[in-house]
Amino acid sequence: MAFIMNSFFPCHSASDDFFYTPVMDSVEPIKLEDLELVFNNLKGGKAPGLDQIDYRMWRAVFTIDKTFFLDLFNLCFTLNYFPDALGNAKIFFLLKDGKDPGACSSYRPVCLLTTIGKIIERLFLIKLNFWLDHNNIIHNNQYGFLEGRSCDLAIQNIVDIIREKSQTHHIALISLDIKSAFDNMN
């Protein structure tokens, strides 16, 4: 088991020479509308994490006392605090279809995080997306992970550029694909 865990979750960390000094702006409080949006979009029946609390339970408690959650989450953001326990996961491995059960690469790791931790992450995503948009951080050519953007749109834009430029210029296109790119980010 340790061998499998180490192959999927290596112990190395980012380089020690990486330093980041956060900008300490005042944190905009979470709005009740954002909180309601997150809670209304929670899907019940999903596998819970180590705490075994389903989204349906959080939604039921939220309907009773919305202010409690609003104050709690705003405090987490104001203090830059995310409880370590919410990052603990229940991990299991699924064998990929038709793969050798003796090879680590034949398994897909699945991590079940606590549902309350995922709620905080969704709120953080709302705040992050607002900040990125407000500060014009995302480049116009970014297509992944953006609402209203897709691979189809990226391909269509490439085709349009090729058609336009090929009228007056010789053009070349280089495409790179990094195998297991997410696993090779370090």
Automatic annotation (TrEMBL):
One Pfam family cited in the UniProt record for this chain: RVT_1
Domain Reverse transcriptase: 75-186
UniProt xrefs under SUPFAM superfamilies: DNA/RNA polymerases (SSF56672)
InterPro entries: DNA/RNA_pol_sf, RT_dom
A biological-process GO annotation: DNA biosynthetic process
Protein name (database record): Reverse transcriptase domain-containing protein
Protein source organism: Araneus ventricosus (Orbweaver spider)
